[in-house]
Design brief:
It contains 13 helices and 7 strands.
Length: 294
Amino acid sequence: MKHLHSKTEEFVNSSTDPERINHIRKPRWIGYTGAKKVHNKLDELRNYPTNLRMPNLLLVGDSNNGKTAMLSRFAMMNSSFVEEETQELFLPVLMIQAPPEPDEKRFYNTILDSLHSPYKISEKAELRQQRVIHLLQKLKVKLLIIDEIHHLLAGTMSKQRLFLNVIKYLSNELKISLVCAGTREAFNAIQTDPQLANRFEPRVLSKWRNDEEYLRLLTSFERILPLKKPSHLIESSISSIILSKSEGLLGEVSKILELSAILAIESGVEMISKNIIENIDYTPPSDRKKMIFR
């Protein structure tokens, strides 16, 4: 068995197993409690009866803490389908990403692109708006998810107000629920419009802590890692170092375990230990920021 001592050590006897390594690199869904609660809320919004004042959700959390993966999975589970009796096409949930800046035309373009609907560059915003409303009504969209909503802060205050009015108008006209997601700045963005702020229920995805839920998460990860020996990730010496390096971010936990599992296979150790984790080529998020300013 090859033992690890430092990041500079040469793995002369290391072996590769492309099939298992590719298996590790494939994106995996871990259905932890927080994600299930959000999915239940999304189900509730999708099925909410048509009302003059539809409820909305603002999902807030740090970057790389699972928001987009969670919403993408829900959108995938509610993808388009054709009703057999009428042969009509339905799209229960539409997920888009907010444009890099609060621009009305670019927002409509994003929706039209996601629906594979062509448009002319010279087409006026009002015509695009009408077409977007017509298509969403025709497809009977029940829930519109707008990811990276904090992008609207990249514009001037007047552009921000215009963009928020566009969102509000769509919600009123279509009588559907909206889900906006982004970093903590997204909360400030929505709060600039009191009417809109009252319609959005904020839900925060907090960073992970060293508690039972975190240990259950590690147990779920260990079940899907194709290693030949148990790693006992929930042991305090290992769980603590993963949490510390990841800084409590789900995406970082996943990356650490991916790199560790690959190194465990390549080195022949076949289990994730503290020594393995210490030897992966990984830089914690806060250290990456420091590197830029050196």
